[in-house]
TrEMBL record:
Protein known as: Aspartate aminotransferase family protein
Matches recorded under InterPro entries: Aminotrans_3, Aminotrans_3_PPA_site, Class-III_PLP-dep_AT, PyrdxlP-dep_Trfase, PyrdxlP-dep_Trfase_major, PyrdxlP-dep_Trfase_small
Organism: Microbacterium ulmi
Family: Belongs to the class-III pyridoxal-phosphate-dependent aminotransferase family.
Single GO MF annotation: identical protein binding
Domain of life: Bacteria
Keywords carried by this UniProt record: Aminotransferase, Pyridoxal phosphate, Transferase
CDD domains linked to this entry: OAT_like
Cofactor(s) annotated in UniProt: pyridoxal 5'-phosphate
Region feature (Disordered): 1-21
Keyword Transferase: yes
Length: 437
């Protein structure tokens, strides 16, 4: 058992021989397409406590990726573990029949959201939530087309992949028809003009959509902070433009908060921090303490409109079952016990220290983020393998972290301490200095 959260404590090289042996053993059975991090790192993680994880060789490492932004509450949380175990001993699953434990989860979740987002569809993953939201949007509006953004990532199922851009789509066509992609302000060609980038980008978007669509879309999908696209916070002004566009056209504004929700950005939901409320909210990842979960939230009018509301048309075999609901209840309690505030406070200080440390570093172009969702963008013109070299250098120093493209992404559990945050900064500085030498 991990008895303390002081880390890193390294007893072998990382990865050590036991980790490499487990990784090699899995390769005999594993399908292609596993995460790049699991493949190159050859790590086998066997235990966790808070923001510390232990590998198969006994090394204690700092988790700066939360198991791909899932373990917001941290590892080894006993309240969640006991809730799952207690429910498992009573009833694990009985389809979507009414359940006291699910009702309690609904009530606790509703208390975190405004009235227009208090009707729920519970599912098994973020990608499934995206798929369901597409059905809901088309059903509620009677329209087919949807709008998404350049550098978006919404998942790998067919509908979600259709909203996504980039290499994930390669070889997967034909994708869902009726999806139109437009740029966000940081990618808009007019970003260097005197006009505010959000204003210029919104004006271009409306003009372009008027040309390529025969009528208003069913929905507009956006991540409040683009994750896989480079940890790009979308300007509040642009989100306000999207809210106005959807209000005028009757389109649904959909916030994909699978990555940003459950306290990650320093508020329970990222939309709270920008003051723009969507029509549909998507969540998953960190909402059930590591238990598979997906969520679509909207108004009763939207979530019960059209053919999707007919019996069995929107049901899910496992979504929101008794085990998932018990995990969700406990996770919400833990998040609301101070972790969301901690994400804001520790994340703010971590972002400040990273900016100070790398303000003039030749390998760093930018540091940005909200709460404990932070990206360190490596300078353009550097070697294409630099991101992986940075990750390897950090792993050798006992910090497990991820990257998307040229951005090193820092997403530790929300229970991260200031001391652990300082270790991440020091390890980042040492790693980048060693590669610049």
């Amino acid at each position: 058992m991990i008895e303390h959260t002081s880390a890193p404590v390294l007893t072998t090289e990382v990865p050590g021989p036991r980790s490499r042996a487990v990784s090699a053993g899995e390769r005999e059975f594993r399908a292609g397409g596993a995460s790049a991090g699991s493949l190159w790192s050859e790590l086998s993680i066997i235990e966790g406590l808070g923001a510390v994880i232990k590998d198969a060789d006994g090394n204690l490492l700092i988790d700066a990726c939360s198991g791909t932004v899932v373990m917001n509450i941290g590892h080894g949380n006993q309240e969640v573990a006991h809730a799952i175990a207690e429910q498992a001993a009573t009833l694990t699953h009985f389809y979507d029949f009414a359940s006291p434990v699910r009702l309690e989860f609904y009530q606790r979740l509703a208390a975190t959201l405004p009235e227009r987002l208090r009707t729920f569809l519970l599912l098994n993953s973020g990608a499934e939530a995206v798929e369901a939201s597409l059905r809901i949007a088309r059903s509620a509006t009677g329209r087919m087309n949807v709008v998404a953004f350049t550098d978006a990532y919404h998942g790998r199922t067919l509908g979600a992949l259709s909203l996504t851009t980039g290499s994930a789509r390669e070889g997967m066509g034909p994708l869902l028809p009726g999806v139109v992609h437009v740029p966000t302000p940081h990618r808009f060609p007019g970003v260097h003009t005197a006009e505010d980038p959000s204003d210029a980008c919104a004006r271009y978007m409306e003009s372009y959509l008027a040309q390529v669509l025969t009528g208003p879309p069913a929905a507009v999908y956006i991540e409040p902070v683009q994750g896989a696209g480079g940890t790009i916070p979308i300007p509040t002004r642009f989100l306000q433009h999207l809210r106005d566009y959807c209000d005028r056209t009757g389109a649904l504004l959909v916030f994909d908060e699978i990555l940003t929700g459950a306290g990650r950005t320093g508020t329970m939901w990222a939309f709270e921090g920008v003051g723009v409320t969507p029509d549909l909210l998507l969540s998953g990842k960190g909402l059930a303490g590591g238990f598979p979960f997906g969520l679509v939230a909207g108004s009763a009018a939207t979530m019960t409109a059209g053919p999707i509301a007919e019996p069995t048309r929107n049901s899910s075999t496992f979504g929101g079952n008794q085990m998932a609901s018990a995990a969700g209840i406990a996770t919400l309690r833990v998040l609301q016990s101070g972790l969301v505030d901690n994400a804001r406070e520790v994340g703010g200080r971590l972002l400040e220290r990273l900016k100070e440390s790398f303000a003039a570093h030749p390998l760093v172009a930018d540091v940005r983020g909200r709460g404990l969702l932070i990206g360190v963008e490596l300078a353009s013109g550097t070697a294409p393998d630099l991101p992986q070299r940075v990750l390897r250098a950090l792993l050798a120093r006992g910090v497990v972290i991820s990257s998307t493209g040229s951005v090193v992404r820092i997403t530790p559990p929300l229970c991260l301490t200031h001391q652990q945050a300082d270790v991440i900064v020091s390890a980042m500085r040492d790693a980048l200095d060693s590669l610049d030498a």
